[in-house]
Amino acid sequence: MITSASNSQIKEIRKLSQRKFRKESGLFYVEGLRTITSALEQHAAIEKVIFCIELLESEFGKALLARAQKKGIPNLEVSRSVFESFSLKEGPQGICAVVRQNIQDLLANSSLSGLWVALEGVQDPGNLGSILRTLDAVGGNGLILIGESTDAFHPTSVRASTGAIFSLQLFQADTAAFINWRKNQSIELIGAVCGEVSDYRSYNYAENTVLLMGSEQKGLPDSLQQVCSALITIPMIGSVDSLNLANATSVLLYEFYNQHNPVRKK
Amino acid sequence: MITSASNSQIKEIRKLSQRKFRKESGLFYVEGLRTITSALEQHAAIEKVIFCIELLESEFGKALLARAQKKGIPNLEVSRSVFESFSLKEGPQGICAVVRQNIQDLLANSSLSGLWVALEGVQDPGNLGSILRTLDAVGGNGLILIGESTDAFHPTSVRASTGAIFSLQLFQADTAAFINWRKNQSIELIGAVCGEVSDYRSYNYAENTVLLMGSEQKGLPDSLQQVCSALITIPMIGSVDSLNLANATSVLLYEFYNQHNPVRKK
User: Fold this and answer.
1) Cβ A240–B41 below 8 Å, yes or no?
2) Which residues partner with A209 through β-bridges?
3) I want to staple A164 with a disulfide (CB 3.0 to 4.6 A). Which of A85, A136, A184, B21 is the partner?
4) Considering only alpha carbons, which residue of chain A is nearest residue B253?
5) Rounded to the nearest 5 degrees, what angle is found at the Cα of B116, between the Cα atoms of B43 and B111?
6) What is the phi-psi region of residue B238: left when phi exceeds 0, alpha when psi lies from -120 to 50, beta otherwise?
7) Mutate to test the interface with A, among B204, B239, B264 (most CBs of A within 10 A)
8) Are A78 and A106 in contact (CB under 8 A)?
């Protein structure tokens, strides 16, 4: 059992709270029984499980540790004070994991099918994570992060995704690379904007669709609008002039879902 | 010009970052050019505008101050260091306001019409604020906060609402009071749950509807489900077992909007 918070392995875990070290190591930190369960079930590349018996009170938590051990995932026992030195929760549940990031360069991928979301310059990790959550819920395939954006592996994004970060594919590309990539793709690219374009409900979404959203502050730049198959907008009749990015994306994703999974009115 | 951060008026402004003092004073703190513009346009009860000429660089900001002054709203000039002592922004724009809270006891209101959202025990002020934003966008009338919840006037909620906190009506009630109130109301109360109930798309929403959502962690308690006109659910086909509260509310609000504002398919 590690009892010193200055142990080198523990220092490496704490460093994962910084984007710089997440990038350098290609790893990220995961906490919460539900999220770790999801990592296991989705066969995420878990490098290490760290636990503290004193804090691991629930039967569910103990079973989760046993399951990880049975799978042969390396594990590390630490003291309470050590666990609390890196835990992000107010009431730590005594188990966390270090997981390898599952994001790839978009250019390495020749073609995509199914439903995708592409986010250009997304800034809020909570938005990013909850978009992953909705995208998983509607049966989507994955997310493309374009340009300078927040980190999908930020603890807030991971938590907000409630496990969807493990079930979905993740790609990244800079803006110019995305535009080039797009020119060789037959998948429909549907851009969401504020303006005089089609009402999002009047568009018939193809089965293979990338829904492209701009950033919270700036919306979708012209260079990206120009390579879209179509532009759509969500009507608004109140006093605000836009919606929260994750809320807007969720509304659009459920329109896609609804068109492909209709219900009959009772 | 106030140059001391320990001035009593300045201390009162800083205290508004604490829920306790927001409650005691019935006031809240508003920052950001867009949000203050909205407060003015929606005729919010602005008690005071505070500004710092050195920070108020934009023409838009200067015009906003002039507009507030022309309306006869009391204003207070402060030094840069004083403004920075209470500002919540990294790059303060040099203008903020203290506004009277526009929330009322639900029981004081005999009947509601139009579209409302009721949130039971909502915990995240960002969710609350972005729900106000979507509710405004679909032409909703207001929000009812039920039970122990976060504060609608928390700075994160105010910011996330992008002004909708001024355009919508706000009510509050404890859970028992809400249930009693509801028994004497003819408005439809539609509860959103996870489970084997109607698909949200198969329900025909009445013009006068309260959409009732449970908290992020616990969902809608039985006592509230029992007084609903109907229960609805959002289908999910992925691995996650629920949606973010604000995303789910937005999907439901746009279904209401869509039923009452249909578009013809092209």
Assistant:
1) no
2) A115, A188
3) A136
4) A251
5) 85
6) beta
7) B239
8) no
pLDDT for the residue A109: 75
CA distance B101 to B143: 14
| φ/ψ (deg, to 5) at A25 | -90, -20
The three-state secondary structure class of A77 is strand
- Domain limits, chain B: 8-100, 103-260
pLDDT digits 0-9 by tens, B182-215: 998 999 999 999 989 999 999 999 999 999 999 9
Domain B103-260 in this protein, CATH class = alpha beta
Give per-residue burial for A153-175: e unless 16+ CB within 10 Å, then b: bbbbbbbbbbbbbbbbbbbbbee
What is the ipTM score, two decimals? 0.95
Interface test with A, best of B135, B247, B255 (most A CBs within 10 A): B247
* CATH code reported for the domain at B8-100: 3.30.1330.30
**Close Cβ partners of A133 (under 8 Å, ≥ 6 residues apart):** A160, A161, A162, A164, B240, B243, B244, B247
Look up the pTM and report it. Answer: 0.95
The Cα of B20 is separated from the nearest Cα of chain A by a number of Å equal to 22
Judge whether A89 and A61 are in contact, CB under 8 Å.
no
**pLDDT tens-digit profile of A173-210?**
999 999 999 998 999 999 999 989 999 999 999 999 99
